[in-house]
Design brief:
single chain; alpha+beta; 7-stranded mixed β-sheet; 6-stranded antiparallel β-sheet; 31 helices; 30 strands; 51% helix; elongated
């Protein structure tokens, strides 16, 4: 998406006109104009020159964002400059000047006539002098506010009238009729017709012409000030961008501009300083405040090898770091780009207001003309009929319609960014709250993603330390993830690993080695039971642990059982709470996992999900999401990499735990933490934003539906209500301000507070259960045609290719995917294949066959 700055827009009709003009340019696929940020996002192959020309031909100005920016710092500076509130100071000066003149005008026109305030001697009794004074003062106010007339009549010339056109027409009509009345009154004075003089004086609307412009300027200033506050979050992020870095060159520190930092440079960070770019700690340790990026108030401890991000604050120790990502690749720049891109897109709900805004002004002009004509036909004098038409012009407000959605989107998006919840587009912010089903990947989303020791059960007569130290000595030589969990637990307890010899990874999922002259073995229940006599109690313990979703590892020494160590990918502390919150919002929660059904069910029960779909490989998740979408809106939550197809297939994809890798193309929403509660926060914020948009749209439509008939005089015969042009202008000036102020209330929203959650639109429970049951049956059938082969000896990608080629040569093997990291090869079968044939193929390829499941 290419982004542009657009100048000269004053209301929703302007943005609709620009969108229509740019959309007609050959090569433009989509165009979205934001009145709030005066920006435009364009996708397609059209050249910037053609796009800018189309905007200029429509009567506005445009320039490409980032054109000529030589660095990320320059881009951020330009973006900051684009968001700077230039309008409020200008409007404030115009308002004060207008008010000063208007006070004099109102003193002469209203003060003297209604309350007999004294006038200068040359005006006393001279009605023509009074009229000329009002004319001159009104003209001064019109000159001060000439922008309304320039913009309004230029838009009318381009056949795209906007809000300024309504104001200009209303004010000009009041002024011109007053000039006509002044000339007629002058003739009456010459004739000595006192009655006619007083009649024409009553038809002066000079004060209305000036008051309309002044009140609209009041509204514009309040609106501009409030609009400026809606982008505070984005401007706050931009201000975090560091300007310099302290590089280490030749053993000395050199302070350089941030744009001169390159990947691989070593930089120093002292306590209290901002980290200039993304990097890795080379030496030193510290607590780093990452609240600016993640919303997490507690500083995070960093030491050698840990990643750090630009714009975070070093709170305690001195560190040296190696730059890894600089310029526009840093986390901060990615976040700023996401928030900016979201502001440049439109939510689907905005299309309703856009369609109305596109025809609103011409319709209002037509209504004003019809109103004037009807009152004339009803026999009222021209001044009265004109006043009704002017009231219709000045009370109508397309701005409120145009701002209803973008201001809420901007505030909601900024609030999310401050709390580590990044919505890539306005669509994702609107749609996330409509979730009816949320599918959660198990590993790394519900669970920690790394196995940990959960239970240590020594055999009778064996102490816990002996069991763990023996397992440590055996597992220290293994690269298996479960072995790393045992090693990590032993290291935390400060145990030392004894030196073993004759280490071997044996077929049947087991390990063997000799320690101090005694043979140690460890592995699964099946493997150990083939070597050691196990009591029914031990078997029952192992089965109970397995039923809880844990993997029981048994260890024995010289034929004597030492005990059981259970290892599991444990559930995150906040997962059950997050799932409770989601279910409290009426969302059905499904867990997807490649585990066997027994383990998956155990974890699902602990987490509290509605349903579990087990045996799902990464490429199968996309199919599950496709089937779930038949029931309602589906959100997929995963790590954004392995789950990319499923994230893209879902209505909304959420990448959780992205940390410093926020540029995940597959996801629509990126969470900076690995907290599942942030998924609930994203849904909650989306619903609050959508609720705010509905309130804004209701007010905008209600205001115009009630205000226009009131101004036209529809209620005069019923209630006697009559609206003067001045009150119409006041109402118009406040309408947009009310919409923007309501959107700003979102800043007070507590997106992590579940106390006010209410169920949204839910899917039918029976249909949901049936659909999940059907999906489970499909995967059970598919899993019969999937086998996982455990292999030792693969070291790299070339090894994977050799194994893949050897296995795919077997009859009945449709495809094979090998992983040297996992030590496995997953086979998709088209027929029956014997374990002997698979073993022979693996052995012949030069690797060790462990077993097949």
């Amino acid at each position: 998406m290419e982004q542009y700055n657009v100048t000269g827009m004053s209301c929703a009709a302007c943005s609709a006109r620009v969108e229509k003009a740019v959309g007609a340019v050959p090569g433009v696929e989509s165009c979205s104009v934001s009145l709030l940020t005066n920006s435009m996002g364009v996708t397609g192959t059209a050249s910037p020159a053609d796009i800018i020309a189309a905007v200029e031909n429509a009567g506005y100005g445009a320039s490409q964002k980032g054109a000529g920016a030589s660095s990320a710092a320059a881009s951020v500076s330009e973006a900051e400059e684009a968001l700077r509130d230039r309008e409020t100071p200008k409007l404030r000066r115009r308002l004060f000047a207008s008010l000063g003149v208007l006070v004099l005008l109102m003193y002469i026109s209203m003060g003297h006539m209604m309350w007999s305030f004294p006038l200068p001697a040359f005006m006393e009794g001279d009605h023509v002098a009074m009229g000329l004074a009002q004319l001159l003062l009104a003209a001064v106010v019109m000159v001060i506010n000439q922008r309304f007339f320039i913009s309004g009549f230029r838009s009318l010339w381009h056949r795209a009238p906007n809000m300024d056109t309504l104001v200009a027409l209303g004010s000009a009509a009041s002024f011109l009729w007053s000039v006509y009345a002044l000339f007629m009154m002058s003739g009456a004075v010459v004739r000595g017709d006192h009655a006619a003089v007083m009649q024409y004086m009553d038809e002066f609307y000079f004060e209305s012409a000036a008051m309309i412009l002044t009140l609209i300027t009041v509204g514009k200033m309040l609106e501009a000030r409030s609009k400026g506050r809606t982008t505070d979050a984005l401007k706050g992020l931009m201000k975090l961008a560091p300007k310099t870095a302290n590089l280490l060159r030749g053993g000395e520190e050199v302070t350089v501009p941030i744009e001169q930092v390159r990947p691989g440079d070593i930089f120093a960070v002292r306590p209290g300083e901002n980290i200039p770019v993304d990097g890795v700690v080379v030496s030193g340790s510290s607590a780093v405040d990452e609240s600016a990026l993640t919303g997490e108030s507690v500083p995070v401890d960093k030491q050698e090898g840990d990643s750090v991000s630009a714009a975070t604050v070093n709170r305690s120790g001195f560190m040296t770091c190696r730059a890894t990502r600089v310029g526009e690749d840093t986390t901060l720049s990615q976040i700023i780009r996401m928030v900016s891109d979201a502001a440049a897109t439109k939510a689907p709900i905005a299309k309703i207001a856009d369609r109305v805004s596109g025809v609103f002004v011409p319709v209002v002009i037509g209504v004003a003309l019809v109103t004037t004509a009807v009152w004339l036909l009803l026999g009222r004098e021209f001044a009265y009929a004109l006043a009704r038409g002017i009231s219709v012009l000045v009370i109508s407000c397309p701005c409120a319609l145009g701002l209803a959605t973008p201001v809420a989107i901007m505030v909601g998006n900024g609030l999310g960014a401050k709390n580590g919840v990044l919505f890539k587009t306005a669509v994702s912010l609107e749609e996330a709250g409509k979730a009816q089903i949320i599918a959660l990947d198990k590993t790394g989303t519900i669970t920690e993603g790394a196995p940990k020791v959960t239970d240590i059960v020594p055999a009778a007569g064996i102490v816990e330390e002996l069991l763990l130290s023996s397992a440590y000595a055996l597992e220290a030589r293994s690269e298996h993830p479960l072995a790393r969990a045992v090693v990590s637990e032993a290291e935390v307890r400060g145990l030392s690993a004894g030196e073993v010899r004759d280490f071997a990874a044996l077929p049947g999922n087991g390990l063997s080695a000799v320690l101090d002259g005694k043979t140690l073995v460890g592995g699964s229940l099946k493997y150990i039971s083939s070597l050691v006599s196990l009591s029914p109690e031990v078997r029952e313990q192992a089965d109970e642990l397995a039923a809880q979703g844990k993997t029981p590892l048994l260890f024995a020494r010289d034929g004597e059982l030492l005990g059981i160590i259970a290892v599991a990918d444990v559930i995150k502390e906040d997962s059950p709470e997050a799932i409770r919150e989601l279910r409290g919002m009426g969302v059905r929660v499904v867990m997807l996992t490649g585990d066997n059904e027994r383990t998956a069910r155990a974890i699902g029960e602990q987490a509290g999900v509605d349903e579990v779909i087990a045996g799902v490989l990464p490429d199968g998740k996309e199919g599950v999401i496709r089937r779930l979408r038949e029931l309602g809106k589906v959100v997929m939550v995963g790590d954004g990499i392995n789950d990319a197809p499923a994230l893209m297939r879902a209505d909304i994809g959420i990448a959780i735990g992205a940390g410093t890798d926020v540029a995940i193309d597959a996801a629509d929403v990126v969470l900076m933490h690995s907290r599942l509660t942030d998924v609930a926060a994203a849904v909650r914020l989306s619903r609050a934003t959508l609720r705010n948009i509905h309130q804004n749209l209701f007010w905008a439509f209600f205001y115009n539906v009630i205000g226009i008939p009131l101004a036209a005089g529809v209620f005069i015969s019923i209630t006697g209500w009559q609206l003067s042009p001045m009150f119409g202008a006041a109402a118009m000036s406040l309408s947009s301000f009310c919409v923007v102020s309501n959107a700003l209330r979102l800043n007070l929203f507590r997106l992590r507070d579940p106390s006010r959650d209410k169920p949204g639109k839910t899917v039918d429970e029976a249909a949901f259960r049936q659909a999940v049951s059907d999906i489970q049956k499909i995967f059970k059938e598919e899993n019969k045609m999937t086998k996982t082969v455990k292999i030792n000896g693969m070291m790299c990608g070339h090894c994977e290719m050799h194994v893949k080629k050897a296995l795919e040569a077997l009859d009945g093997v449709q495809s094979a995917e090998a992983s040297h990291e996992k030590g496995t090869a997953v086979l998709q079968l088209s027929g029956s294949v014997s374990a002997e044939a698979v073993k022979a193929a693996v052995t012949e390829a030069g690797y060790e066959y462990i077993g097949m499941e």
